[in-house]
Amino acid sequence: MTSFASLMERHRRRVAVAYLGVLALACAIVVVPQLRAAVGGRAARLFDLREAALLDRLRQAESLVEAGDNETALGILYDLDARFPARTNRHSLDRERERILHAIGAAELASGRKGRSLTAYRAAVAFDPNNVTNHVALAEAALALAEADEAATHFLHAFELYPSDAAAVRNLIAMRHEDADYAGVVEVFETYLGATRVTELALTDGDATVGAKVPVDGRTYEIRFAVSGLDRAVPLDVFSRHPTLEVRGARWESAARAGVPGRAGGDLSITRPEEAKRVRLPTDAAVAVLDVRVGVPIDDQTWSLVESSYRNLLRSAGAAEALSGMTVVDPDTWLSAEPDN
Amino acid sequence: MTPFDVLVLTSPLLVALVLASGAALRDYAEARQFDDWWSAAVTLPGAFAGHVRTALRTPRAIAVRQRLDAAADDAVAIRLSVPSGEWDAHVANAFAADNPWVDALLVREGSSREANVRRRGDTSVHWTTPKTSFTLRVPRGERVRGFRELALSGKTVLESHLANSIPGELGLAAPFSALTPVYLNERYYGLFRAIEPIDESFLRRQGRMPGNIYRADTAERGEYFKDQPRNVFDNPYIWDRAAEGTDSEDVARIRLRRWIEAGHGPTLAHHRAFMDRVDVETAARLLASMLVAGDPYHMSGVHNQFWYDDPSSGLLTPLPWDLRLLDLEARATNPLNDFFTTALRSPFVMDRALTVAREAAEGGLMERLEARLAEATTRFAAHLEYERLRRELVSPPGEPDELRRVLRSNLETLATWAGDARVGFVETGDADSRMLDFETRGLAGADLVGFGGLDGTDVRLYLDRDGDGLRGVGDEPVSSRMTDGIVRLDEPLPLYAGWRHDGRHFSAGRIHYRLFAEGVPSGRSLRPILENRVTGEAVETEPIERGTALGDGIGFHPWEFVEPRGRTVRLSGEVAMTETLRVGPRDTLVVEPGTRLVLAPDVSIVSRGLVVAVGTPVRPISVLPADERLPWGTFALQGSGASGSRFAHTTFVRGGGATDGEIEYKGMVTIHRARDVRFSDATFLDNLRSDDGLNAVHSDVHIERCLFRNANGDAIDYDYSSGTIEGCSIEDSRNDAIDLMTSAPLIRSNRLLRSGDKGISIGEASHPAVIDNYIADGNRGIEIKDRSDPVLLHDTIERNEIGILSNVKNWRYAGGGRGLLALSRVAANQVEIEVDGESGISVIASPIGTDPVPPTSAPEWVHRAYGLVPVGRPGALGQAAVWTAPRPPQWVDEFGDEEIRFYEDAMAWDRTGPIRLREADGALSAEVEHGTGAWGRDVDWDLAAGGALVVELAGRHVVELTVVLAGPEGEATRTVEVSDEPGRIEIATVDVPPGRYDRLRFELDVDDGAVVYDETTGLVERRGGRVELFRVRLFAMGDEG
Which of A273, B456, B694, B844 is deepest in the core (most CB within 10 A)? Predict the structure, then answer.
């Protein structure tokens, strides 16, 4: 202490100058915007780096779970869970926290630790009970662990939140069918069939794209797209993210022309979206008219359960009627029919 | 100088730098937890600079803050006391997982009352600044500034207040908004915007029937539904209800889904189904408000959506919420929501919106908004200055000059749009048939008024209604006549403008209109006469080159919207009806005398047009069930098209109410939103299933000499309605003979017998005149509830279980019933009059129970006010025989009845001496701790024949109250005895001699020795004297009254 005091005493002038220099630098940082921005930017980078490190660790853990190294993954994931900043679903990293919990659930499930797995999935549901995926994940884990009641409860929660959720619909139908609850199967199916859903359809006439919404209900709709202003015959293209789109017919109409009676028009001979590129809209076209249908998707296996349920309830006619609104697809296609978020 | 000296000398600077750095790091770390618009704008250098600047302004901020008196007794501010730990842990904690209500006290000048607060808001601007937004709530049955609950937002207070004032200025039902300083624990906390929540109380305050309010407000993290479509107009499953009607959750959801699904459909039928569910006038007014605010975007596809489902019209009404003030011509920050995108597929909403905006601008909108802005900036000058001094740390309030500039700019833009009525025109064809092609190309439409250039020759005009471009049978003739050498259309033909929105901007579309003209002389050309639909200015056409493609093909053509022509439906003889008869708004239904309508179960008659069902005593009309055991539905009049309908000598038997489309009719006979509907000498018998024999909602209905018997619930139910019920006999109703909700009919000379519940139920702020009725043998004669205030005159109420009950029933009205009982007899009831602690009744010259007939007569004003000329001794008890036009008071002052007054000096009343003056809960309350005090207001009354000043009041611990009306020529005074009896309302009449008067004054002397025993504390406390003034009226005498 004495030596420090004597050191300070000996170099007091230098210490004072150094201190004042540091202080002046700090003041310069305050006063000079460029300096302030540079220093502040660097400090902010530390936050970015910390966040990036957390996300890297999460990605690493997810890879480990995928690769089957669950124990290593869990070590990382529990550590992440303990210090992850998102404690409420208002946080900007809320989805990442859900990923941690889902990864823990999956790893514990794979490791055979049933209780811990369900605890993690339940935590995800508690974290955001409005997330349909959290309920489905918990329900699927519960189903895998033979906790049928909990599985049914959370598939039903997911279904009530969003009755077009393919996983919830598929599993609820399968579970109820297994329980010989055919009325329950039909109830779920008819709610799904009648649910409100819509998809975007886009039509490209060479340079420009026009969009329209189409209900996903298996009915055929006439949709009119304004395409006026073409300077040449252009190929037509119809886009939709929805896999069950069918184009059942197409026509074109000309615009009214000043002083010219009537309107021109013609058939475009399209029955499938992919055929659209082969036809060309004439320069005179002002409106393209498409007859489109977007079926309610369902997979073959689920449809067979629904059909047999109708049959067991002596309502085969109901199944036949329902089929007119459906498009039977493979399971992956059904999942891909989920809407944009 | 030692290093220590240097350190000491520079320590303030060092400390400031350390503190600023620490605070900036904390702010930045907090902001990074969120990713909304507010937190995204926070940078570390910015936060640091903000703290440094704020620190440098601290001395000024302290000086400003000292001017803000935390203890002042004013009505402007909200003063809260909340334990600091609770506030910090739960309210001002952005990271708390839960959001509980925290106990608080609302403080004002030494007194306090219980309240609760909790954090509110959807983005970090509400939670991460030193000015946390919160919700304030008081217990049920109480109010703070007129509301049970208020949202207090710290976000852009001045700008938001101004922007959200616009919808109300344009005639929309808009949530209340006011600026208010908030003091927290005796320190100034910040200037906030108080906002009324949208719920059932909001509907009632707006005079709307309780019903569903659908809400979609799911934009931000923690609120939106992950892994579902986020667009609320795509996904009905993420809506909830801010207010619940009578529908179950499932039924309400189905109603909403049907509407949203109609919006998805691509066809005209879908579009019409979607728009037919919407109150288009309100939607247009909302759009006009948004355009004036420059923000058609923030009520977006993911949040700020509130839609009221009006049960009386079946229409969805959009409610304005959270508008911003932006430059209308700036690039959009959000896409236009799907509702307005769909609405723009037809031109009607935008056409109307532009007209509404122009009318508002010409009606002085800018001046009123500027006055509002100036008033706020003057009143809150110090508060705004304080906010500016910490502007980097809190949401900036908005700068008046900039707000004014943006508003002016938006109104100028709208004026430019309104003037942009460009129309192209070309005439082709031969002498026999001309083709007239118009194309609207601007943002405003034009009305085709006629054609010139014909030199006296008449022509025949046709619309190409079917749009095939050819003259054919589907085309509609246009009525016109030749006047002064001009072919004038009987009705101007609207050529609407097309509107487009590319996601970022509005732009003009092109709509083509083709007409055909026949009989145009060879060599003549038609010269169209057009007027701008918005401004009325003449529009010159632009030439169109022959062969040019016309119209842009986007949206639906206005001529596709065909309205059927009116027809007359006649019913006569015996008519068996097995299907519901629907009569359109342009149709007329005539039921001939002697007709018997026999309706199958659940079959109804629903008329949106005029109904004339006038039978005679000899040939009455009957509406009867086909099956005696099962009710038919309803006979409903729906909408203004049914106004003026007449029913006479018509009997309705065993109807049961119905739901038709989206509208529930809860009466055997139901009138929704129609005026001047009359029932004379009609009979209503034995309605089944439904509540009411006759139900009027938002209507004006007159019922004369009718018989109601055996109503299943209420015989007559008026909701938000007016009219008369006169000379009727209403017997054996299972519930009420007459049930009123927010209604003010004249109920005169009826006999109401053996009601299962009330003879007359006067509820939810109803103000009827009940005169010369006989009410007997029921459960309750008359019940007065929830801020209702009837006058009961010359009535006889006897042999009921309770004669008159005045009480609180619905907490949303935060008050009981009041009434005036004059010249009436209340006798032989088991309980004559019962009044709860929050209600009252004034009695004038009325014997109660076994009281003898009072020797005093009623003052003259009582009769004059309600149109009575008494026969015999003036003002004596007994039946008045002569009716005349009512003479309402010349001047009325009422207090706090749904009137929200944040600003004390908005009150015209002032005070002298140690007196506390408050306006709350429907009364002006004057309280004096001890001694005397006075309060008064300036008036300007010139009474040539004198008058009567009528004061309604109650009080406690009052020694003397003197009412003084002073003027240059003298004073009129009266000393009023104020009883301590609970529930008793005094009516004091001051006879005012002829003369001029300029000052009304009340002088109060209270009992200094009044004490109360507090059972909780066991202490005896002194209690001041208080007078509650409910209403002051001046009736002029002589002819002028």
Answer: B694
Q: Which residues pair with B107 in a beta bridge?
A: B112
Q: Is there a contact between B25 and A43 if contact means CB atoms under 8 Å apart? A: yes
Query: Quick one: pLDDT band at residue B875, thresholds 50, 70, 90?
Result: very low
Lowest mean pLDDT of A228-232, A248-252, B115-119, B382-386, name the range.
A228-232
Distance CA B417, CA B328 (A): 11
Is the Cα dihedral B275, B276, B277, B283 positive or negative? Answer: positive
CB distance A257–B549 less than 8 Å? yes
A256–B44 CB contact, under 8 Å: no
Which tens digits make up the pLDDT trace of B489-517?
A: 999 999 999 998 887 789 999 999 999 99
Question: pTM for the full model?
Answer: 0.92
Q: What is the pLDDT of residues B41-53, one digit of tens each?
A: 888 888 888 888 8
Residues of chain B with Cβ-Cβ distance to A340 below 8 Å are 229
The mean pLDDT of B830-844, rounded to a whole number, is 89
The radius of gyration computed from the CA coordinates of chain A, to the nearest angstrom, equals 31
Top residue of B4, B6, B226 to mutate, by most chain A CBs within 10 Å, is B226
**ipTM field:** 0.91
Band of residue A44 on the pLDDT scale cut at 50, 70, 90:
confident
- Cβ-based burial of B45 (10 A; exposed 0-12, middle 13-18, buried ≥19): buried
Please count the residue pairs, one from chain A and one from chain B, whose beta carbons lie less than 8 angstroms apart.
195
Chain A residue with Cα closest to B37: A92
Residue of A nearest to B219 (CA): A90
Dump pLDDT digits (tens) for A116-151: 999 999 999 999 999 999 999 999 999 999 999 999
**CA distance, residue B233 to nearest chain A CA (Å):** 10
Kindly determine whether residue A257 and residue B548, on different chains, have CB atoms separated by under 8 Å.
Answer: yes
Name the pairing type of β-strands B791-793 and B769-771.
parallel
- pLDDT above 60 (res A340): no
Interface test mutation site (partner B, options A27, A29, A135, A198, max chain B beta carbons within 10 A):
A198
pLDDT in tens, B687-703: 998 889 999 999 999 99
Please provide residue A66's backbone torsions phi and psi, each rounded to the nearest 5 degrees. -65, -35
Distance of CA B826 to the CA centre of its chain: 37
Q: Report d(CA B212, CA B209) in Å as an integer.
A: 10
Who's near A178: CB < 8 A, 6+ residues apart?
A: none
CA distance B739 to B720: 11
Instruction: Give me the phi and psi of B194, to 5 degrees please.
Output: -90, 130
Residue-wise pLDDT tens digits, B883-942: 667 788 889 888 764 445 555 445 678 888 788 887 777 788 888 877 888 999 999 999
Between B14, B20, B550, which is nearest A257 by CB? B550
- Candidate from B97, B429, B549 with C-beta closest to A228: B549
Q: Do A260 and B549 touch (CB under 8 A)?
A: no
**A235 has a chain B CB within 8 A of its CB:** no
Q: Nearest chain B residue to A160 by CA: give it.
A: B237
Assess A36–B contact: CB distance below 8 Å, yes or no.
yes
Tell me how close the Cα of A228 comes to any Cα of chain B, in angstroms: 7
Q: Beta-carbon neighbour count of residue B178 at 10 Å?
A: 19
C-alpha B19/C-alpha B24 separation (Å) is: 8
The residue length of chain B stands at 1041
- Give the closest-approach CA distance of A328 to chain B in angstroms: 22
Tally of CB atoms within 10 A around A74: 23
Nearest in space to B639 (alpha carbons), one of B614, B615, B665, B613: B665
Give the C-alpha distances (Å, rounded to integers) separating B360 from B84, B138, B258, B292: 47, 37, 34, 10
pLDDT number for residue A2: 64
Neighbours of B970 (CB within 10 A): 12
